[in-house]
Amino acid sequence: MKKNAFKIKVPGSTSNLGPGFDSIGVALNLYLTIYCTESDEWRFVQKEESKQHLPTGKDHLLYQCAKFVADKFGYDLPPYKVDVESEIPIARGLGSSGAITVAGIEMANQILNLQLSLKDKMLIASELEGHPDNVTPSFAGGCVVAYYHNDDLYYMNKKEMEKVDFVAMIPSFELRTKMAREILPAELPFMQGIQGSAIGNVCAAAIFQEDYVLLGELMEKDLFHQNYRKKLIPHYQEVTAYMKKEGAYGTFLSGAGPTMISICERGWPAEQGQKWKEDLPDLEWRILKVEDEGVRVEKN
């Protein structure tokens, strides 16, 4: 690696986890990696052929996030060439935008030697995203249950979720978060809010107690967002019923969708995966694990 060069590796994430709307996220072993070297101008180079349409200059989201941090602390950003590689599908609910936000913040932290704390970085990311569930796991690793309000962040972090696999079922179409948010109601009836909150509370407790049977059952009872968003996912009911029949603990809409994820006993999807692909061939199937390490930096 060249002088003043560094690499940042960020795990993707799944968020919401049923009733954990805007508050529960899990880091997964899908990664965004950027290679940063000093340059005479800002330039972003996408390694994947399928992403050549993305911006190459200062209109890139990585730069915009990094500049937000620089402006916040009163610095100018010296130019870098940034090579970008990503395993995270775009607009599929697997944390692609959140990972870019995290990488951009860490890039500014490294370039400007800000020495930001983990919480400082997670606060900035939550400010940029408006919610913490898809960015805090990419910073901290593992599962994060978080509440962001009035420029403060309250969170708990759970690591070593080694008893389960996360089976992602990825459709060929994209679903932009903006559209998925617009379909949600502006308000909920009081009692529905109480019931939804109770379901979410028990789900959070089940995660920390590693009671995945209970978690799976309750995440499908979500009252906050899945009943509204499933209208945008034609295969939602089919996949949920199929994976329940196959023995999954539970299935939920990953992030804003359209990817759906089933939580299963560790090792079992490797045995059944080929059958699932044959039964539902229109979906891309990925067996994922929880990534306990968050964003990492490798310097020259």
Automatic annotation (TrEMBL):
Keyword terms, alphabetized: Amino-acid biosynthesis, ATP-binding, Cytoplasm, Kinase, Nucleotide-binding, Threonine biosynthesis, Transferase
A GO MF term: kinase activity
Binding site for ATP: P89, I90, A91, R92, G93, L94, G95, S96, S97, G98, A99
Residue span(s) of domain GHMP kinase C-terminal: 205-267
Annotated catalysed reactions: L-homoserine + ATP = O-phospho-L-homoserine + ADP + H(+)
EC number: 2.7.1.39
Residue intervals passing through the bilayer: none
Subcellular location: Cytoplasm
Domain GHMP kinase N-terminal, residue spans: 61-142
InterPro entries, sorted: GHMP_kinase_C_dom (IPR013750), GHMP_kinase_C_sf (IPR036554), GHMP_kinase_N_dom (IPR006204), GHMP_knse_ATP-bd_CS (IPR006203), Homoserine_kinase (IPR000870), Ribosomal_Su5_D2-typ_SF (IPR020568), Ribsml_uS5_D2-typ_fold_subgr (IPR014721)
Pathway: Amino-acid biosynthesis; L-threonine biosynthesis; L-threonine from L-aspartate: step 4/5
Main location group: cytoplasm
Pfam families for the chain: GHMP_kinases_C, GHMP_kinases_N
Family affiliation: Belongs to the GHMP kinase family. Homoserine kinase subfamily.
PANTHER family in alphabetical order: HOMOSERINE KINASE (PTHR20861:SF1), HOMOSERINE/4-DIPHOSPHOCYTIDYL-2-C-METHYL-D-ERYTHRITOL KINASE (PTHR20861)
Function: Catalyzes the ATP-dependent phosphorylation of L-homoserine to L-homoserine phosphate.
Protein name: Homoserine kinase
Originating species: Salinibacillus aidingensis
Gene name of this polypeptide: thrB
